[in-house]
Amino acid sequence: MSSDASTQNRTVLGADCSIAGDLSIDNDATLLGQFEGELRVSRSLEIGGSARARGTIMAGAVMMSGEAEAVIIAEQVVHLLPGCRVKGRIFAPQLQVEEGAMFDGELCVSPNAIEAAESHMKSSQASARPSMHESAPGGHDVQTVPSAVATLLERRRQQQSASEAQAA
Q: N or C: where does the chain have the smaller number of CB atoms within 10 Å of the terminal CB?
């Protein structure tokens, strides 16, 4: 695919955007504005230096330059770039942290990170007490979406089955 084609297939949420809610993007995406809620990107997500995100972020790969208070789940890699500030949990098979990046939270870097995310989120919801339950303004939970994680797991199983069928 040419770089022109990949640029045309990228969804950009500009610096002047402020979105609250659930958003699914079946494409590459760039976030430059404010996002609060659940963001699912099927391919790569770039969170620019001007961006602020709170909630749950799921993508094939995440490149972070901005700020986030979130659960971040990546199928491939999370890359924390200089100047980024992340507070929360990261689940990914691979993590890259550049000098100058800031992270405060819990990490699960493993080939089974998505499964770990699903397990962690289910147990967090089961043990959450109303007085300790954290919720973003607008009622968006920071630790939700086992169903979306299950979708990632199903996609992984389908890819593995297709690979096994090709190898046979």
A: C
Let me know how many helices (H) and strands (E) the chain has, helices first.
3, 11
* 11 alpha carbon, distance to own chain's centre: 16
Residue 118, both tokens:
């699903």
pLDDT tens figures, 102-113:
999 999 999 988
CB atoms within 10 A of CB 137: 8
- Residue whose tokens read 């659960």: 71
Q: Tell me which residues of the chain have a pLDDT lower than 50.
A: 1-6, 129-145
- Ranges of each domain in the chain: 9-125+132-167
CB 105 within 8 A of CB 87: yes
> What is the pLDDT at residue 69?
98
**Nearest alpha carbon to residue 148 among 46, 42, 31, 68:** 42
Q: Are 55 and 38 in contact (CB under 8 A)?
A: yes
Tens-digit pLDDT profile for residues 57-86: 999 999 999 999 999 999 999 999 999 999
CB 39 within 8 A of CB 23: yes
